[in-house]
User: What shape does this take?
Amino acid sequence: MRNTIHNPLNAVRNLGILAHVDAGKTTVTERFLYATGTTHKRGEVHDGTTVTDFDPQERDRGITIFAAAVSCDWDGHRINLIDTPGHVDFADEVERSLRVLDGAIAVFDAVAGVEPQSESVWRQADRHGVPRIAFVNKLDRSGADLDSAVESIRERLHPAPLVVQLPIGAEDGFTGVVDLLRMRALVWADGSDTAEEGPVPDALRDEAERRRRRLEEAVAELHPVALDEFCAESTLSADTLTSALRDLTRAGEGVVVLCGSAYRNRGIEPLLDAVVAYLPSPLDVPAVRGTHDGTDEERAADAGEPLSALAFKVSATATGRLTYLRLYSGTIRKGDTVLDAGTRRTERIGRILRVQADRHAELDRAVAGDIVAVIGLKSARAGTTLCAPAAPLLLEPPSVADPVVSVAVEARRSTDTDRLATALARLVEEDPSLVARTDPETGQTVLSGMGELHLEVAVEKIRQTYGLEVAVGRPRVAYRETVVRGVSGLVFRHVKQDGGAGQFAHVVLDVEPLEEADGDGGATGFAFRSTVVGGRVPQEYVRAVEAGCRDALVEGPLGGHPVTGVSVTLTDGATHSKDSSEMAFRTAGRLALREAMRGSAMALLEPVADVTVTVPADAVGGVLGDLAARRGRVTDSVARGGSVVITATVPLAELFGYATRLRSRTQGRGTFTTRPAGYAPAPSAVTSDR
Assistant: This one.
C-alpha cells in the first residue's frame, strides 16, 4: 500500500456501499478504513464502535440510518466512500447518494444471496448508470455458498457475474481466496490483518484452472479485444483480463464478483485493489450535463472549468449547518461566493471540510471530483446546484419519493409548540423524504415519511436532539384515488365578469383510466393530450388547461386523496377575443376535471408492500394464517436451511405492529423485510371506512 496526499483526477474514486440491511456494508466500510491506516482499531457494529454509524440511534438499533461519507487512501488513490442505509424506509438516502457517485460496491450475504433490498438498491443504481462490483460477504457463516449467491445475482439482477476468486475452505474453515487472474493464493492466518501470498493449493489447482477457464470464456463472449486474443492464443493474459473487466464493469455489461468475510478481515485488500482497478474515476464517467436558460450544457471534470456542484445532503451539527457537495467541475475556496442556480441567490463558502463521518478536517480548497462538506450556506437544500456566478448551470436534482405513511405529532406542553415547528422544519430540511404539514380539517401537525421506522427515527430525533416531549398519533397510510370509468364530452364554460376585463374559457374534456399508469402515484400517473383542430384553442391555452388539470389531481372526490391513473383529452373549446387568458383556461381546466371526476366511477387505492418473511419451519402455519388475516397474498414459499422464506404482497396499513406479532408467533426467531410495491385497489370495506 502506498499513500499519497496529492491525487490527480484519474486517481480518485467516488463510490458507495449498497446492500440489504445486515449484509455487512458498515463492516466493509470499517475494514476499508482500518486496512488503509485511516483508523487504528477495527470498529464493530455490535459494539457500537463504528466510525460511520455514529448517530446514537444507529448504534442503539445496529443499522445504518443516515448516509455517512468517509475518505481514505489506497495505492496512491483517494477513495471517497459513502456508506448507505440498507433498510427500505431510508431508500431516499440511497437515491441521493447514488446521484453523486461514480461507482459502487454491492455487498451480498453468502447465505441469503440477493435479498429484497439488495434488488431494490441494484435497480436504483441501474437507473443512475452507476458501475458496480460485487462482494459476497460472510463466507465464514454456516451455510455460506459462493456459487449459489452468484447464481442468485445472475437470476435476479441479470448482469453477467464475472467471478475472479475461488474461496479456500468453507464456513468456519474459510481462510483465504485464490486470485484467478494471477493464479495465486491469498491466505489470512488467524489474528493476521494481512494476507500471505503463495501458490494455489494442490487440492484446489484443478478447480482453480476450471474456473479461470470459465472466466476467460465469459469475458471473451462480452469483449471484442479479449475475443481476438482468446481465438488466437486459446487463453487470456492477466493484463488483458484486467483491462477487459474494467471495460465491462464501466459499461455495465458485467459485474466483477469477489468474496470474503469482512468481520474476520479476510478479502478486504483484494476488494480495495478491485475498486482501484475496475471502478471509474471522475474522468471516466460522462461529463455532467445541466441547463442554462433552457439550453443543455456540459461541464468537464476539470478544476479549471467554471464551478458546478450538487448538494446531496444537509445536516445540522454542533459545528454548524453542514452541506455535503459533489464537485463536478471547477474549484471552490474558503470565502468564495457561489450562485444557487435554482433561486439565483448568492451564498458564501465559510469553511470547507474533508468529512470522516462525524469528524472533519479543514481544507483550503476543493476541486472537481471531490466530495466535501461546507459551512456557511444558509438556504441550500439537498438537490441545490451551486455554480460560478459568471457561468450559471442548473443540474438535475435527485428525485424524491412520495411519502406513504403519516402520523400526527404535537408537543405535550403547549409552550413547546413553536419549538416543535422549528424542529420539524429542520428535519424536513435535512431529509426531503419527510413532509410536515397542518391538516386543514383537524388543525393537527402531520408528519409523513417512507415507513413506520422512518417516522420512529424522526420522532426520536426530535426528542433526543431538541429535548422535546412529543405525543404521536396512530400511523396512517397515504391513499390514492383513480378513475375506473370516465366520462366523455364534458362541457365546461368558465365565465366571470365583475367590471373591467373578464374571464372566459370554454373546454370540452374526455376523461378515462390511464392504461399505462405505473400505479405508484408518480408523475406517470397522469396523461394529457389535445385533439383540438382549427386553432379553436391556442397552444398556450392548451398548456394552461393541462396545468389546471394537474391542480385538480391534488384532491379527489372520494376523500380528498391525490388522484393518479387518469388520462384527459381536450377535444374542443372556444375563446373570447378580450376575456380569454391563460389564467381563465387554467381555472376552467381545474374546475372541469373536478366536475368530470365527480361524474366518473372512482376507486380508492391503498399502498401495498412486498413482504419477505423468514421463519422456522414449525411456525409456517401460524405465519401464513396471520398474513391471510392481514389481507396478504402469498406469492412464493421456499425452504432454505431449516427455515422457510415466505414472499407475500400485503397492504401497508396492515403491517403496522407486524414486527411484534411475528416475534410472538415465532418465539423471536422470525424476521421480515418489506419493499414498496406501488398501489392496489382497496376493498369496499376500506373505502366505506374512509
User: Anything to note?
Assistant: The two ends are 63 Å apart (CA to CA). The CA atoms of residues 21 and 63 lie 7 Å apart. The chain has 16 helices and 38 strands. Residues 202-222 form the longest helix (21 residues).
